[in-house]
Amino acid sequence: MLRIGVLALQGAFAAHRQMLEHLGAGTVAVRQPKHLAGIDALVIPGGESTTMSKLAVSTGLFDPLAEMLTSGMPAFGTCAGAIMLATHIADGRTDQRDFETLDIDVRRNGYGRQIDSFETDVEVVGLEAPFHATFIRAPIIERTGPGVQVLARVGQNAVFVREGAVMATTFHPELGADDRLHRLFLDQIGRN
User: What is the distance, to the nearest Å, from the Cα of residue 68 to the centroid of all Cα atoms in its chain?
Assistant: First the structure.
């Protein structure tokens, strides 16, 4: 059975764990470095990226996670998780750290404040039917590197990307009943 670590410092980690367990994966709430032992992949949930960054540093998780991600561990970041995986954060705080695992540039709260949050159906490469996506203070991906595959867009904005074993959405796939993106992630891990 796959063991998926879900970064559980802040944000929507419980919904990710529930969806992954529903799909048959084992999950581990990652709050301390000792929780990284034996995990096959990592999910970084949505939430507040600066808070998650600070907590990852203060708990001693940031450096071991960065090392695991640099070594090729599969990862799935959603919303704030996409920000934490990015190579560059436009308008990020000076003390905010990211893992620089996914060759994208993101802008925090790119669509606006909480009141500007929205839901829409997106066409996803490889899925037969649209995916209903929830955007909450979502980042905008401003640049994708040459090795990054765009799997979904809203207008001109990439909202679901993959590079190697790392994928990210700027929306929250864990907030609905549709498990197809989590299933894609688990299938990807099974191929690696």
Answer: 15
Looking at the chain, how many residues does it have?
Answer: 192
Active-site residue 174, yes or no?
yes
Could you say which of 16, 79, 163, 182 is catalytic? 79
Q: Which amino acid is at 128?
A: E
**Cβ-contact 107, 91 below 8 angstroms:** yes
Closest CA to 124 of 162, 98, 153: 153
Fold designation for 3-191? Rossmann fold (3.40.50)
Give pTM, 2 decimals. Answer: 0.94
Take residue 11 and report the two structure tokens written for it.
């944000």
Q: Which of 16, 163, 172, 182 is catalytic?
A: 172
**Is position 79 annotated as part of the catalytic site?**
yes
pLDDT higher than threshold 80 for residue 192: no
Summarised one tens digit per residue, pLDDT across range 143-174 is: 999 999 999 999 999 999 999 999 999 999 99
CA atoms lying within 13 Å on the CB side of residue 36: 15
Of the residues 100, 119, 128, 174, which is catalytic?
Answer: 174
